Give the backbone structure.
Amino acid sequence: MFSLLYASRSTLQPSEADAAVKALVSAGRSRNEKADVTGCLVFGAGRFAQILEGEQSAVEDIMRSILRDPRHTEVAILQQGEAATRRFADWTLGYAGPSLFVQRTIARPVSEALRGSKRGMADLIHVMTEFHAKQTIASSLPSA
Ligand SMILES: Cc1cc2nc3c(=O)[nH]c(=O)nc-3n(C[C@H](O)[C@H](O)[C@H](O)COP(=O)(O)O)c2cc1C
């Protein structure tokens, strides 16, 4: 199992970003599902951060497309390598954004991670797994 974390800067106009990101997430989900790739995307304060996990060749294939995507720029791969388990096994492409909460939560760890701070990177991964855990808890509650 291979896992990759990157961060980038959005080139989308703020007024169109929400709709544009939702569209790319929905297209990305079906491609990720076919490739057995899972992960999580966060968007806020003009930044994206994403974790992709799966077979190395499958992750790298999708990452090649992501790298040439004009909807963002300054794509920085922060971490990649073998991982024992998937963090987002049930998420083909979990998405959090662009609420004020997400914006405030990811802004600092993303900029610190981009400056090469290991602590920033760990915080960013932590925030993403927390989004995942909360979502899992919320979706496991019986509906009213
Ligand atoms: C921030 C960001 C994250 C993306 N994440 C994914 C993803 O997880 N899976 C995916 O298939 N495409 C994702 N895309 C879209 C790809 O860049 C690409 O448009 C799509 O996979 C189609 O590939 P192609 O242009 O090589 O045909 C993402 C794009 C951006 C800007």
In short: The first helix runs from residue 14 to 34.
